[in-house]
Amino acid sequence: MLWKGGIEHGDISFMNLMWDPVLRVGVLNDFDLAHIDDIESRGTRRTATIAFTSLGLLSPDAIIDRPKRLYWHDAESLVWSLAWVCLCLDVYGNIPADMTREWVVSQLLLLQKWKNPNSSFETRTSILAFRSQCKPIKGFDPLWRLATKLLTRILKMYDARVVHVQEGGALDNFNEPTPEATHQDIVVILNSFERTNFGALLLSY
């Protein structure tokens, strides 16, 4: 809805997502970095929470070329927030029983690297490639599978851009997916999740 209204949030992260217990809906908070069509931004350079920023905006080429922010970039940030929730181990009893001490320590170190702006891109890329080595917290296995499925689909768009450039194509000539097409792809995956027992249980709350 925001993108249809010409509003790009630009900093979707775990910290900016809230829950309204009265209306029973999610709330996107903190629009300080938002860009509104036809309105000049207060600053010439916008930053965001690197740990949840789209990989498509953090690659070496993107840092140099600074491509235009697209709908799927914000969608990817939202999914990275979901993935973070799934993997964020703590000391309050949510660590799966089958995780060894070494595995727990390894994953905690991985999360630290994820949060570090200097290593977030490489760390999250490795998480996607070796996601079987990551363990979601107790009860979050279905949501972790959903998160990785969504990320895999969204990042196909980034991969297509990389191949296009490697083959000598200009980004100006790349056929970017429309917000509507990206949204529809996400909806298809979410609808499939809602038909699972876990998805139906979440919707019942």
Q: What report would you give on this structure?
A:
- With 205 residues, the protein is mostly helical.
- It has one domain.
- It contains seven helices and four strands.
- It has helices spanning 60-65, 71-87, 101-115, 120-129, 141-166, 179-194, 197-203; strands spanning 7-8, 17-20, 25-28, 35-36.
- The strands form two sheets. The chain has a two-stranded antiparallel sheet with strand order 1-4. It has a two-stranded antiparallel sheet with strand order 2-3.
- Strand 2 (17-20) and strand 3 form a beta hairpin.
- Helix 3 (101-115) crosses helix 4 (120-129) and helix 5 runs antiparallel to helix 6.
- The longest helix has 26 residues, at 141-166.
- It starts with 6 loop residues before the first strand and ends with a helix.
- Residues 40-45 have low confidence and may be disordered.
Features:
205 residues; mainly alpha; two-stranded antiparallel ribbon
Give a topology summary.
Layout: E1 7-8, E2 17-20, E3 25-28, E4 35-36, H1 60-65, H2 71-87, H3 101-115, H4 120-129, H5 141-166, H6 179-194, H7 197-203
Antiparallel strand pairs: 1-4, 2-3
Helix pairs in contact: 2-5, 3-4, 5-6
